[in-house]
Specification:
The protein is mainly beta. 10% of the residues lie in helices and 44% in strands. Strands 6-5-4-3-2-1-13-12-11-10-9-8-7 form a 13-stranded antiparallel beta sheet.
Length: 257
């Protein structure tokens, strides 16, 4: 009424969606745009002494279903000692993902154990799990705050998740695009030691797409920046691109268009 009490019904439209729905939409926005996709990436790794290394690679992705199983193929072109290195992921939300790294210098196909998913990807501050996305079933979520621009959500690993190094993380999810813009990881003392940021959002084929990503990690010191270009969606990548054969013979026609 006039003296306060319940607001008019129209205001209810501003109620935030359920936290599970926000997390699912953020996961789809970040990892499932279109039915498939390709991006070229240039990674710059800076250690705590300021020494720099670079990696160049192309990422191919194919979805079985939104939020469901999907495949990733990451093929390296530079520097020369990484040329021909290929990373293959079969993602199984709700179960363990399958990850392989192929090292041409040793003609070695190495399986990345599930317990190693939160370790350094090719010497960078990016983790294996960051490349293809963390399984949203592994954490419980709480909506901390809805600001003008973001949903601020806290995630805590479920009890059986013993292969993580964080005690919780907080995501700032853009309310318009649903892209997670910043993720901060806390250690057991509640201190933020790791931060991931996405920026330079461009809309490509109707999909808001971060063109830059930065990961800082105080435990490792330094940071890694990734710049993306040449993104494309719904290009029709066939399923057999994500096979054993592609480890030794990367599918050139799908990697550079």
């Amino acid at each position: 009424g006039l003296l306060g009490g319940t607001p008019p019904a129209a205001a209810a439209e501003d109620d935030p969606p359920d936290v599970t729905e926000i997390v699912e939409r953020a996961n789809n926005a970040a990892y499932y745009a279109g039915d498939d996709g390709r991006a070229q990436a240039r990674m710059r790794i800076v250690d705590e002494q300021g020494r720099t290394q670079t990696r160049q690679f192309t990422i191919l992705r194919r979805d079985e279903s939104d939020g469901g199983d999907q495949e990733f193929l990451v093929a390296f072109s530079r520097p020369s000692e990484y040329r021909g290195v290929v990373f293959l992921v079969e993602k199984h939300p709700g179960g363990d993902d399958d990850r392989w790294l192929y090292l041409p210098s040793q003609d070695l196909k190495r399986r990345i154990a599930p317990g190693d998913k939160r370790t350094s990807f090719v010497g960078s501050h990016v983790f294996y799990e960051d490349v293809s996305g963390r399984d949203i079933h592994n954490d419980t979520y709480e909506l901390l705050e809805t600001t003008e621009e973001h949903y601020k959500i806290r995630a805590v690993p479920k009890d059986d998740e013993d292969d993580v190094e964080f005690s919780s993380y907080t995501m700032w999810i853009d309310r318009v695009t649903y892209l997670p813009m910043t993720t901060e990881y806390k250690d057991e003392d509640g201190e933020v030691y790791r931060r991931m940021e996405s920026s330079d959002i461009e809309t490509i084929d109707g999909h808001p797409t971060p063109m830059r990503m930065r990961v800082e990690d105080e435990d490792m010191g330094g940071y890694t920046e990734v710049q993306f270009r040449g993104q494309a969606y719904d290009i029709g990548v066939p399923a057999d691109v994500f096979s054993d054969r592609s480890l030794r013979n990367p599918p050139r026609q799908w990697l550079s268009r």
